[in-house]
Amino acid sequence: MAGLNQIRPARGATKKRKRIGRGDGSGHGTTAGKGTKGQLARSGGGKGPGFEGGRMSIIRKIPRLPGFKNPFKTEYQVVSLERLSQFKANVKVDPEALFKAGIIKKMKEPVKILSDGKLDKALTVRAHAFSKKAEELIKKAGGKTELVESGKCKKKNKQ
Fold this sequence. Notes:
CATH 3.100.10.10, three-stranded parallel sheet, 5 helices
């Protein structure tokens, strides 16, 4: 019976490692198996992993292709000031109130208030974003603007 000390790999199963750049006596001397001159013979030579023969690589092309949608873009549900005028004066208007009134369709998507129309009531408006002009007009009417924490209603993005 053969012992563990007698086990050897099959003939031809193991080869000596190719030691490049160790002189002529190594069997890979002079050009170290890289041929004569040229880009591939130089240190650091060759093309990068994304190189496609000089044409624009697919990595750079993808955002320009039709149907590409940026997964990190925040898409807001837009609400104009004119739509806010249906609420009574001195009321707190938040995404939940906008949803109940039927102004926005989805509770989980962030809301942005834009300055279309006029507002003549003092409202406390809570939203994820405001245009500068909308913020000015709300404050001019005697109301307040408050930013909602974006974590509560933000879309599930891979960030």
